[in-house]
Amino acid sequence: MNGQVVAFIFARGGSKGLPGKHHRLVAGKPLIQHAVEQAKAARLVERVMVSSDDPSIAEAAKAYGAEMPFLRPAHLARDETPEWLAWRHAIETLGETVGLFVSVPATAPLRRPADIDACIERFRMGDVDVVCAVAPAHRSPYFNMVKLDAAGHAGLVIPPATGTLHRRQDAPPVFDMTTICYVADPAFVLKAGGLFDGRVGTVEVPPERAVDIDTEYDLRVADALYPLVAKDAP
Asked: Cβ–Cβ contacts within 10 Å for residue 203, how many?
């Protein structure tokens, strides 16, 4: 592999669900600081960079030890802009410097550096274009997730092919996507339209490390769980 293992933190300034999200605190630290420190502590990451359109996030990122080689263009930081395009922009801007692309979202402050390393190691096993971290789902589309028909009546999202499932444990295992880490071949990001255009590998993490900050409620949950997750860290 030419180039380096580069971890990016994509942190745009706008957030309708939680204004000023990346500066909000969990366990006394801003989310952007958690992400930078976790990425820098991952033993397989060689460089840590931040992609943001917000000068205040840029200054904070640099203060916490990340590189900030560019400000993200405004058209790549809108609410409706797929983050995939920001991934492409970062790779295209840095060119062959990026030998392996790693995304470490700031919205998962309970991740461990070892989770990032595990995703990189899974990618290096081969047979995949991208790797993401997943957690066991609390709800199953085969058992206790429903959709409504035209009359407003509820039915399972995925009805069983035969019979009736009486226990969640009898349903096929399903997982929640997390925002802990994504690892991808830069060439795949540049040619594909999205994550599931390629072969997707996974690394399973426990649900308590997979809290994704999108609302005030999520922030409070993460703050409450942090001492427990930190206590169990190796």
From this structure: 21
Task: Match 């072969």 to its residue by tokens.
Answer: 199
Separation between Cα atoms, residue 21 and residue 23, nearest integer Å: 5
**CA separation, residue 199 to residues 144, 184, 188 (Å):** 28, 10, 10
Contacts 24+ apart (CB under 8 A), 77-85: 77/12, 77/13, 77/14, 77/52, 77/53, 78/14, 79/14, 79/16, 82/194, 83/10, 84/189, 84/193, 84/194, 84/195
CB 207 within 8 A of CB 135: yes
Per-residue model confidence as pLDDT tens digits over 176-226: 999 999 999 999 999 999 999 999 999 999 999 999 999 999 999 999 999
The pLDDT value recorded for residue 234 is 63
pLDDT for 1 equals 65
pTM over 0.85: yes
Read off the amino acid at residue 216.
E
C-alpha dist (Å) from residue 21 to 54, 131, 190: 12, 26, 28
